[in-house]
Amino acid sequence: MTGSQSSFPIEERYDLKLITTFVLNKKYPIYNWFYFKEGFSRDFVEYAVNLLWYEPKVVLDPFVGVGTTLLYSREKGYYSIGVDASPLMVLISKVKTRDYDAKLLKEEAQKLFKVKFRKPSLSSVSSFVKQFFNKYALEDIVFFNELINSIEDEKIRNFFKVGLICASSKVSYAYRDGSVLRVVRKNTPPFRKFFKRFVGKMIKDLEKIKFLSSEPEVRLGDARHLDFLEDSSVDAVITSPPYLNKIEYTKVYRIEYELFLRGEEPDLLRSFIGLSSIEESYEPSIPPVAKAYFKDMRLVLKEVRRVLSEGKKAVFLLAGGVFPTGVVESDLELSKIALEEGFKVERIVALNKRVATRNRVEKIGWARESAVVIRKE
Ligand SMILES: C[S@@+](CC[C@H](N)C(=O)[O-])C[C@H]1O[C@@H](n2cnc3c(N)ncnc32)[C@H](O)[C@@H]1O
Questions:
Q1: CB neighbour list of residue 355: distance below 8 Å, 6 or more residues apart
Q2: 222 CA distance to ligand 1 centroid (A)?
Q3: Given ligand 1 and candidates 41, 84, 90, 301, which is best to mutate, with the most ligand atoms within 8 Å of its CB?
Q4: Helices (H), 264-324
Q5: Could you tell me the residue ranges of all domains in the chain?
Q6: CA-CA 20 to 30 A from 321: which of 79, 248, 307, 371?
Q7: Among 3.40.50.150, 3.40.605.10, 3.20.20.70, 3.20.20.150, what is the CATH number of 10-93+211-376?
Q8: Whose CA is nearest to atom 22 of ligand 1?
Q9: Which atom number of ligand 1 is nearest to the Cα of residue 241?
Q10: Is the entire prediction scored with pTM above 0.85?
Q11: Among 280, 371, 377, which Cα is nearest to 49's?
């Protein structure tokens, strides 16, 4: 260990645990368009800005997910930049953070819902996808998808595409259970009506939030290589990387990729944190998956340090990993690496904790979910 810090006190604020989840976003227009189980809330971003102790001008989220950091930044007037390795996340974040001409959207919606239903062929839909929908809903979804694909204006096309993705996920039988998709049948509303209502809500939502800064830059990319950003070009990072035990969760978006983003599936092994090769040992007590994860997180921290201005801060929200050998304390591991890479670890605030078990019954400890605040020295 370099630097002079030798221990990292952990503050406990378990009363705030809800802010680490997506649930609170349900009440915020636009933030709630796509339910992202792995996302944090607008309230978390607000809390993270408080942890900085200064008002940032340019905020980066290198694991942007569904764009919550960017939306909050736009509301507060900070310029922001988002990066994600998943094309689905990039599409959703982009669509949520653009400026629109509501009149054009209304006209396009009117055109779209005027077109009479023609039964599409489902021959290109895999049996994997078919099991998650009632046949009539799936026919409607494929029908609208074809219509939307023919909209010329890219911004408008993407807006309706995201509407369709959100509406279809609400009528699908898919239940995301960790890294697996399960079929859970339920009664679903008639799709056309439901989709129309959803698009209407999206257009209304646009009027409910006032943005104070310009459109953020949202990019498909890799948090380990932020080459497009210059040194010292941002003054805050607010982010949550994939969690240690859940790094493969993009598999659960297979339905969205097959139906709406064919050919754009992310290259998991190349682009996802923790899935690349495992080489030199980091610490013998850490399982190989966690070693690979922290090796990648070191690269992320190096890049974050490079792009941050001197004295400015990054807030990482991350959770401990549970392994048969025990709990890996991600907040402390990240802090150690941050210190080695030239940061000062300012605070670790534990916001949530889950019981960690072996074989589902034997309790082996607690896995904390914490905000780690680090400052570029
Ligand atoms: C925990 S989620 C972030 C959620 C986000 N805070 C939100 O509220 O929507 C982690 C994100 O990291 C992305 N990701 C995984 N590996 C990445 C990489 N190497 N570079 C950039 N993004 C990556 C995943 O696609 C996922 O969207």
A1: 363, 366, 367
A2: 9
A3: 84
A4: 268-271, 288-307
A5: 10-93+211-376, 102-208
A6: 307
A7: 3.40.50.150
A8: 84
A9: 10
A10: yes
A11: 371
Nearest CA-CA partner of 2 in 340, 343, 344: 340
Q: 357 is written with which tokens?
A: 């078990």
Distance 67 CA to ligand 1 centre (A): 10
Contact 35, 54 (CB under 8 A): no
Q: What is the CA radius of gyration of the chain?
A: 21
Beta bridge partners of 375: 313, 344
Cβ atoms 247, 328 nearer than 8 A: no
Residue nearest (by alpha carbon) to ligand 1 atom 25: 86
Q: Are 342 and 333 in contact (CB under 8 A)?
A: no
C-alpha 224/C-alpha 307 separation (Å) is 12
CA distance 41 to 59: 16
Question: Which of 24, 37, 42, 89 has most ligand 1 atoms within 8 Å of CB, for mutation?
Answer: 89
CA distance 170 to 270: 31
Distance from residue 60's CA to the centre of ligand 1 (Å): 13
